[in-house]
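Reader question, answered in our methods column.
A reader sent in the components of a multi-part assembly and asked whether the whole thing could be modeled at once rather than chain by chain. We filled in our standard form and ran it. Here is what they sent:
COMPLEX SIZE: two components
ENTRIES:
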Amino acid sequence: MLHEFKYSLLTQLREKQSLFWLFCFPLLLSTAFYSAFGNLYEDHEVFQTIPIAVVAQTENEWFSMALESVSEGEDALFAVTEADRAEAETLLQDKRVEGIVFVGKTLSLTVRGSGVAPSILQSFLEQYAVQEAVIKDIAAQQPERLDVVMAAMSQDLNCLKTEPLTQGSMDPYAHYFFALLAMVAMMGSSRGLQASVSNQANLSPIGARKTVSPIHKFQCVAAHTLSSFLVQSLSMCVCISYILFVLRVDMGERIAMLYVAGLAGTLTGVAMGYCIGAIPGLSETVKVGISIGVTLGSSLFSGLYVAEIKAAIMTSCPLLNDINPTAVVVDLFYCLSMYEDYDRFLQKLLILGIMTLVFLFAGFLMTRRKRHASL
Amino acid sequence: MPVFKVFLRILKKYRIVMFMYIAIFVSLSIGLIKFDKQDTGFEAERLTISVSDLDQTAASKALIAYISAYNEIAAPIIGKDAVLDQLYFRSVDLVLTIEEGYAERLAAGETEPLLTDYRVPDSYSAALFDAQLERYLTAVSGYLVSGLEINAAAQKALETAKPQIAVETLQDEKTTAGTVGNGMIGYFRYLPYILIGVLVSAISPTVLVLMSKEIRNRMNCSAISTSSQTAQISLGIIVVSLGVYALLTGIAALLFGSDFWTWNSWYVNLNSLVFMLFCTVLTMFLSQTAPNTLVLNMIVTTANLLLCFLGGVFVPQEFLSETVLRFSRFLPTYWYVRGLYLATGYNGEPWNATDYAMCVCLQLGFAIALFCITLLIARNKRQTQSNA
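And here is the structure of the entire assembly that came back:
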């Protein structure tokens, strides 16, 4: 069996084409993902002080004070540049400010277009306008209460308490890396398929040769499947290490467990390939087609191409995420990255373990005790 | 033209791959039409907020009415895990709970904790919600202090907190080329991926078959001259490329109707036609350099992904970092996308004929440079074969 294992391993490592798909392709794809998504969260979702221009057409002491109060300190809402109209418009055109506040008899705002930053600026101005309206309203009806009202309205309201949710990074683009790793795991199906096909006499000459050799078929299959798992695991470990240590994608603190998740996914991928390869009555080409189709299809539904697909399935049909091996592997990485306990991780690992056993058992049942009178 | 005929006959074997690419692309494009909207100036950002009302009073309902005026309200989410999942995938931007006793404690002047929320920490969406909430609660507290009872104060605040600020969008002195729908921009932005995929995956293997040693030898001992063979193969490549391009443009015309027949659409078409030329040359180049179809598949997959990811085809250029963009300038896809943005006035991109011409010329330059390299390789190959 050791002899079988050794040569099966050498055969796989000497195929240049398979080496490309094993090592180069995942690294290239993760580099491409990183170049596209690497800074999206930090640059476009994490709040940074909004640069604005203020054109003072008349003196408005109250507004100046209000603006000053939100433009100071480390967590300032706005960075204010005072300018005349022409300067301010140039700044806006050159995308150096998000909006121009015109302080006249009334406040007005000029922006380049829609977006969250201009909306925050608009909301701040609305807040000032609302305060002004309330004060005018009360001044007209109950002028004696005006001082108390103004004092109450200038107080900081702390009505909202934010509950912490996770210690992990909320970068949604990390999902693409989880999905990529899951795809690498499922690419193990082509290795598992080879393990199965190369031991079937009616599908490959090497299978025919092995069938007439004195070695037990189970040993042959086990050696080839194990070597396939080892090769694919190597690819998985290289890919995880590259994403973690070279690209420095934040996938949480539990690094050792990330490798465990990757290896578990790889085992399922190889087992799935072995099962597909064992389906009777199909040619090798058809089996390869099924394997590629299942890998790419399940990757699509796990959100490799569009992350929202997985989110939509999660809401509308969560069962589909539990029977899709790629989505389960994605969940393993996601759980390790986001959850503090291991409950959900272990639940997903169990599902993956059951899938692996089912694939191996089904594959074994379909290939055992096959005899050929002629080929 | 026997070689041309053989070319088409071999190509027929790859028609499934070609149509599979086109079918997937068209299906995705139909999906894009859903998001097709014209940029009509400023529209305030609307967040998706899941609200659980544990108070169930007129005051809490007034708060929900206020939030829903500026945001989309989603159903309450049960369980911390579900909240985390929904927030992580941005199915919701914020999960808000109005605590029991909200109205009572607000009326009593207590402030903490009336509301609790789960949010993406330090995000723009959280900052926007904070600003919206503060606007409303400041008004409520003002009316409460003035002597109104809680329900009346909440109702009055709801009326007062309506938008009052006039928001204008900057009128650019340099006019844009006009705007077309986002669906059409999306279609043409993804076009490079499909053009490279379809042309290289179908044409290059066909040429590889014709260039294989046995077929090459058979053709060489026929009555057809080498230059005629090359011309017929080239004609085949050009006819198929133009056919694929015409098909994809025709589909665009059908899908985007009036948008497609605007004057800026001609600039979009010229831009994509030049890129198609680059793809055709790339096909010829790969046919000369790839030793077999397996290696060809590896090169195509890798090159296509890198060209599209780094050039701004998959992720809009405005989201790519400066470092990536600096590198992308050496890729034709970057100039294709730039040309598309200029031609469509995407994101308020001002029309500049010189810039547009530069984008088209640079793509043409890439095509010509690659064509020269291909000719050089082909000549060297021929010389090596004749020497052998």
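What stands out: Chain A touches chain B through 83 residues (CB under 8 Å). Chain A has a mean pLDDT of 87.
Send us your own complexes using the same form.
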